[in-house]
Amino acid sequence: MARKGRDLEKIISLLEGALQQSGIQLKSPDFLPDKDTGEPREVDISLRGRIGSSDILAIIECRDRDATQDVTWIEQLICKRSSVNADKVLAVSSSKFSEPARIKAEKNN
To answer: Hey, what's the torsion of the CAs at 52, 38, 40, 78, to 10 degrees?
Structure first.
């Protein structure tokens, strides 16, 4: 049986390999300051880079659960994206997403 977190480590390894020459920095886990509280917020993976003259921050949050992921998790990630000033957030799940979760994610980029 694979140890807990091994799938996330595989994702990170694949991303690191793909981004090796791009100048994008990957960190996992990462702790980003909350713009409202100043407290550090943990994210599973952060990606930082530059596109043209703009600095970009994307975060990736992962869940390894049997249950279908619902709209509540997506809403939490939308709020977290704002709180840590991320440009993008990506939700990765080993299970499915509910239709309301997909709609909410799509409407919020």
So the answer is: -60
- The DSSP symbol for 93 reads E
3-state SS assignment for residue 10: helix
Q: How far is CA 108 from the centre of its chain?
A: 14
CB 87 within 8 A of CB 60: no
What digits encode the pLDDT tens for the residues 92-102? 998 999 999 99
Q: How far apart are the first and last CA of the chain?
A: 36
Phi first, then psi: what are they for 102, rounded to 5°?
-65, -45
Summarize pLDDT for 15-54 with one digit per residue, the tens.
Answer: 887 887 788 899 989 999 999 999 999 999 999 999 889 9
Distance from C-alpha of 65 to C-alpha of 31, rounded to nearest angstrom: 23
Q: Is the pTM of this model over 0.85?
A: yes
Query: Helix, strand, or coil here: 33?
Result: strand
